[in-house]
Amino acid sequence: MSTPAASVAEIGSASSVGGLLLSLLLVLGLIFLLAWLLRRMPRMNLAAQGPLRIRHSLSLGMKERLLLVEAHGETLLLGVTAQNITCLHRFDTPLPESEPGKTPFAEMLRRGRDQAANTQS
Q1: Model-level pTM?
Q2: Beta bridge mates, 74
């Protein structure tokens, strides 16, 4: 009768090890998923109210980009590479504030919707 008790103990320990491995894989998968999402999401500008603000960013390659930066009321166009940052232009007058969400595509979509609404009425 000692054999069935030993096999029950082995089954219990095997299922707990399996559950432990499954939990570990689930946590690791969640970590990798969150890391992937953070890379894909646009950067949130948490310091937008401070003295330094990125007004616009344009990617030119894998590690090259143009940044339009506002610092203490002065607007700068910066070229950023993996090795250095270069000031390409200093604007004499402040640039007008752009409306968020007003892209050429959004404007064309709005016009198309307006035209479709006018033809249906």
Answers
A1: 0.44
A2: 71
